[in-house]
Amino acid sequence: MQDNPGMKEAARLDADEVSILLIGTEEEQNDAIRLIDKYLRFVISGIIRNVAIYLKSEEVQEVYQEVLLGLWRAARDGRYDADRPLLPFVFTIARCRAIDRIRRKSLRKRKIGNELVLDAIAGALADTKVGEAWGNIVSKNDGPRMMATIRKAIIRMPERQRQVASVMIDLYPEEPSLQEIREEVCQRTGEDLTVLAIKSARREARKKIREELVRAGYMERKND
Asked: What is the pTM of this model?
């Protein structure tokens, strides 16, 4: 059986050296990205093709560039953990970026307009009171103001809740599952959270959005 040339090339990469470079100076971080590009290009592109089999060659290359950019940003922002194995981290980002490209293409096909996006908010909050309030707001053409109220609540949240809530808003008109939110957060931040962590953050985010809607007069407070 013939060896996979991409894996043979990847085996030549000193992962420990690259990990150290990624937490170094800006010049060292750039050197790390160049080494990854040199030795992992074939493997990363293969992962993207396997996940997103219908992407055109130019789209695969675009996603590949997004992977490198995500790695560079993680290093620049101090979010890269050098104690974490390099290759699984890189390959996870590649899979997340490929899934994100598929989702974006799907959303572009199905997205009808801003009214549909705003209308999906009520359902995603999983609260009939919110749904009733949203129906009243839409009838008064006050959707943009309600959206502004929701985004105000999101800005005030802790980082993880803010990431999850932003994904919930940005992926409309779809209502993303916990796994889809997890993959999207991974794609944006490079952080591979557990489904349980996502579920907890989503629950708290929904609670805070409801509280902000109560303060803004869009819905009545629940009686616990």
From this structure: 0.51
